[in-house]
Amino acid sequence: MLALVLALEKQAVPKKRKHPRVTLVKPIPARERIDPKTGEVKRSGATWWGVRYRDPDSGKIVRKTLDRTLTTIVDREDYAVRESERLGRRRLELEGGAVRATGTPLRAAEKRFYASLVKKRERTRETYAEGTDRFLRWADEHRVRTCDDLTRGQVIAFREWLLAEANSASTFNKWIRAVKRMLGYWIDADLCPRLDYADLKRIKQEQTATELRGFLSPAKARKLLEACERHDAATYALTREEKAESEAEGSTPRYQPISGFALFVLLTGCRLNEAVGLDWRDVDLDALDHSGKATGQFQIRAAHSKTKKPRTVSLSVSPALRRLMAAQKLRTGGRGKVWDVTEDEAKGALKRLRKDYGAPASFTWQALRRTCSTFLVNSPGIFGGASAYMAAKQLGHGVAVMERNYSGLVHGIDPTLRNLESVLGIKEHATRIVKAVSGGPKRLRAVAR
User: Fold this and answer.
1) Which CATH superfamily hosts domain 106-200?
2) In terms of pTM, does the model score above 0.70?
3) Which pLDDT value is given to residue 240?
């Protein structure tokens, strides 16, 4: 009787599986068939043990063939147990909010990243591509196919590989910043289940020497404006129109005038795209300063700003700047763009000025912005004790950036000098340029013709 009870209890309690969620699949005997076209004997069917389980990330059934070294039932059972434990841990991780594996190919993920940069400038996208293209090349070489495969160790290995590729620390840093930006986007988009932002912090940049910000000294600023005046004074020896209409020879300007635009960038510190994109609807020449004096100002729209934040630029730092803007308004009628210059034309003029007209070799449009920043911060007579703060508001920088990169670069500026043209010693140059801009309509028609 006791034996019968024990037997019934044994049948009532189901046998506990050693490896739940994982099923060992027996090999199917190979079947032979004759190919009707070639007459060859072909074998089909599984020839070794495998496992079957449901992937916790995708929910799909996964079938895998076991390694042929697992020759005994004990070895295969041990493998199935380990796989079952791994699947159990993964299920718990997903229940706790872990990122699911998606199997997204790296190329598809890169395409999605660049689609998110649609509002970025083309130059920015090209800079990113220098780094991300190398990342994908490394991934191909090391057989990293999907975002699921990326681990912290692999990313560190990529850093070491990229370090050997780069010629300089600054180049390496430019490439690694682009890759970190892309990886950060993938992490935000839940494409990398085995990476997080803590891993990205371990991807260090290389130390580079800190150089002084390149700016133009007052002597070089004067040399530049003189080169601009020579550039604008250049004319053709004789044009067809002059010959046909019996006009004076050599009266047709060779290039679009650039002096007024260069003076504007120097005295406002605008970025090149901000200057060429400025519209008259954003300019108010009658705006008052804190004392009630009409000094003028203009707005930089968020769409044209590098920081995507609008800002107000006051003309109070330079009376010559307000006169320049007033002359330009008369010339253009106060409609449309303030300056008849595109970015490509400005870059072309820069090359001509340095190559043919004696402009300083260190002159760039960005150098003019740095020159304005440097002298606004270090001139005690313009903004007084609030120079770093006011200059930051004027230029669209952070106060800490102004203090760290521009403060203390120039010493001995006369505190009685109250405006930028006096500090830079360009009052006479500014006067001549404003006068030339005032006579602009006749010259502009000549260029168009």
Assistant:
1) Tyrosine recombinase, N-terminal domain (1.10.150.130)
2) no
3) 59
